[in-house]
Amino acid sequence: MITRREALFGAAIGAAAVAALPAFSAPVTKADIRGLAREKIKLVAPPFVHPHDQVAKGGPKIVEFTITIEEKPLVIDADGTTLNAMTYNGSIPGPLMVVHQDDYLELTLINPDTNSLAHNIDFHAATGALGGGGLTLINPGEQVTLRFKATRTGTFVYHCAPGGAMIPWHVVSGMSGAIMVLPRDGLRNDKGEPARYDKIFYIGENDFYIPRDEKGNFKSYESAGDGYDDIVKVMRGLIPTHVLFNGKVGSLTGDNAMKAKVGETVLIVHSQANRDTRPHLIGGHGDYVWEQGKFANPPAKDLETWFIRGGSAGSALYTFLQPGVYAYVNHNLIEAVELGATAHFMVEGEWDADLMTQVEAPKPIATN
Amino acid sequence: MSLFILKVLPVALAAAAVPVGLSLEAVFGDRQSHPIAMTVVLLSGSIIYPTPGEFLKEGRPQGNPRLERQLDRPLEIMAYQVGAADYADCVSAGGCQPAQETRAIPSKAPVTGVSYLDANAYARWYSEVTGDQWRLPSDEEWAFAAAERFAGEFEGVENDATNPARRWLTSYKAEVDLNRKPDPMPKSRGSFGFNSLGLADFSGNVWEWTSTCYVRTTLAADGSGVASSVDNCGVHVLEGLHRAYMSNFVSDGKSGGCAVGTPPDNLGFRLVRDRSGWASDLLSHLRII
């Protein structure tokens, strides 16, 4: 049995051993890197995505991002249940970062001294050093800068992985996000033709494990560390108390519903850093779906539901054909309705009566 | 809050109200062992009232017809929602199933986490212990009692024959415009104040069951009235900040609420008393006074 203190700090020591490898932390000094153009991106909170070109202009460049880690309590449902959240840039999920293939993604990660825990970042898109996790472990009061080459296209998860038992705990406390590496000439459909989107939304799905008291009510804790022992017990049962889009019941409904118009093509990026999920757009489809998320593979067509493996991000391209209020759900409907994984699209436009018509309204059953 | 969608009609309510408290109970000489609930008697009044249910005409959804209704006999209704402690007495006595409420609610809060079936079980038990006839109010009676707190039907503001989505979208926006934050924790009785009739806590964070069934009505194309209607009494009308329809066995507002929009925070109820004999006569007499 380890104490909470050992759990919190022991893990940091384990990961620090990896970080001690000097060759990997040395700056890259190749002339071709130094000569590359740099672009500094200001991140925006999901479901929105920072402005970006779908087709790259010019050659590869170094794209700079800054993310500040925030540990803070967040209310995650209508009952006021509180998660001692750990976040990248204050949001769950962390912001979506978009680059093009062969660009270099350069991230400055800041862990303010107002936080209490060590954190890092593991990019599934990156090669080596535990996805960068081995080079980015920082204590409160520290910052670190990592650069990696975006060699593979697709949508990829990033998450905190500070070692041992800290890894799943940080992830189910909210520390995950995604990046999208676009082909330099943009997306292609199954026939290799250009595929463009008018809008992009980023949905991060989380499974949370909030402990309950003896009456069955959710407990709250002074700090993340105070809740650690209880939360791990719930986590080990593998049954989440909440399955949510963008960190909170209602984060993508009502006033926060995503908006589109009939005829608009929307790219929906969906990540789940920990657990499998199965997005479904009720009353719509996935015209082109990169279920595994990787653009080197042709997209699947006309999907009804798509499968996002835990620890991956996928995307679906859809052109809205009919106006209305669409629900976008995890089609484990228990998780969608009872545990929270529901988002809405409000789509304005003209009704296509050829696609659907109520031939006869409800009426008493004919008796003759 | 955009009132235009709420049909908070200029509730033309001219009801006279008489509070009936414990002191009056002594006059009536009730023989109950259970402390009798404080009630208010509404003697008269009229409202313009959107009838509950769903209405179709020529295959298209219609706004709920607004009818002028008269209160044609005295209505005696509980001043407060049935309390959690009152309901617990019924549970202890074996008359009611426990409420589905596990939170630490204030001791003087209304009962929450109760279904239509639970509310009726309580009315039966309460009638037994008090020797009076208690029952859920009809939706119309509830509207009379709620007076200016009555909100009524939540519906789309547009009805485009060629584009049914207009109705869904405008209805959704209307709910969003309400900008109502969930307020889940029940509060002590009286916390939501009194309406103009001296009745407490209407349209707070506890929705109230009524005895009115959900009904789908097809109106005659020529405007001559009802062409057909189908009742579904497995679903009853709840009133509160907005009207809701829920299955009889549902006790959690969130799980039985609207597919889109803000569901009720909590489900509870209050009862009306049917007077008979001389008591009723006396109340009718009071009306004249």
UniProtKB/TrEMBL annotation, chain A:
Pathway: Nitrogen metabolism; nitrate reduction (denitrification); dinitrogen from nitrate: step 2/4. It catalyses: nitric oxide + Fe(III)-[cytochrome c] + H2O = Fe(II)-[cytochrome c] + nitrite + 2 H(+). Cu cation binds at H119, H124, H159, C160, H170, M175, H331. GO terms for cellular component: periplasmic space. It comes from the Bacteria. Binds 1 Cu(+) ion. It holds the Pfam family Cu-oxidase_3. Residues 1-25 form the signal peptide. One of its GO terms (biological process) is nitrate assimilation. The keyword Magnesium does not apply. GO terms for molecular function: copper ion binding; nitrite reductase (NO-forming) activity. It is found in: Periplasm. Its EC number is 1.7.2.1. The keyword Protein biosynthesis does not apply. This is Copper-containing nitrite reductase.
Automatic annotation (TrEMBL), chain B:
This is Sulfatase-modifying factor enzyme-like domain-containing protein. Residues 39-273 form the Sulfatase-modifying factor enzyme-like domain. SUPFAM superfamilies: C-type lectin-like. Keywords: Plasmid. Gene3D superfamilies: paralog of FGE (formylglycine-generating enzyme) (3.90.1580.10). It comes from Mesorhizobium ciceri biovar biserrulae (strain HAMBI 2942 / LMG 23838 / WSM1271). It holds the Pfam family FGE-sulfatase. One of its GO terms (molecular function) is formylglycine-generating oxidase activity.
